[in-house]
UniProtKB/TrEMBL annotation:
Signal peptide: none annotated. This is Pvc16 N-terminal domain-containing protein. It holds the Pfam family Pvc16_N. Residues 216-227 have a biased composition (Basic residues). Residues 197-215 have a biased composition (Basic and acidic residues). It comes from Streptomyces viridochromogenes (strain DSM 40736 / JCM 4977 / BCRC 1201 / Tue 494). Residues 191-227 are annotated as: Disordered. Residues 4-181 form the Pvc16 N-terminal domain.
Amino acid sequence: MIHEVDEVLKGLLSGGALAGSGIDVALDAPTRDWAARRNSPTINAYLYDIREDINRRQRGHVPVHDERDIVVKRRQPPRWFRLSYLVTAWTKQPQDEHRLLSAVLATLIPRELLPPSELPSSLAALGLTIPVSVAGIQTESRSLAEIWSALGGELKPSLDLVITAPFPAYPEYDAGPPVTEGAVVRTRALDGTPQGTEERAHRPRQVEAAKEARRAALRARGRNTTT
C-alpha cells in the first residue's frame, strides 16, 4: 500500500503546475550528503511518519460483490493510515525553491480527494476515495525541527503533506450462496401426521423483489455521487 501511495504522489508532483518542467521528483531522505549530490532542481517528498487514523477504524464486515452484484465474499473493513511526507524544493537559489513550493501548493490544493479511478492496483480495487491534506496543522508528536535535526540538515522551508490511505484487511472468506428458495413451514399434528399444506414463508419472487430494490438503491446512489 505504501509504495502505491508513493507512486500516486510522484505522479501528482510531476503534473499540475509542474507538468513539462523537467523537475526531478525524489523520495529520498534529505540528508546533507543527499543534498550535496543534487545537480538539478528537485522536489523531494520524504515519508517521515506512518500512523493509523483511529477515528476511521470500523467494525463488522464488508460484502464483496461479483459482476452480477451478488455477494460472494466478506472481509473486514480496511484500516486507514496517515502517511506524512516532508515536501521540500532544492535549487541553488532560495527564490527558485520558493517558486517550486508555490507550484507544489498550486498542484496539490485542488486535489483534496483522489477517486479510485486515479489509484493503482489494490488501492483502486477497494473503491474508496483517498483524502489529501497539504500544509495543515501538524498533529504528529515530532516537530519538523526535530525531523531536520535527526536528518542532520539545516531547517528549510517545507510543506507537510498527509495522505490517508486504506490498507486492505485480510483474510477474505466466502459468503454463502444467494437465497433462491424460500423457507418452508410445515405443520404436524401431535401424533406426527402431516396437517394441512406447506406454506412458504419466504418465496423466491420475494427474494427477487428484494434484489431489485437493492439494485435500484445502488443506481440511485450512483446518480447522487455523480451529481
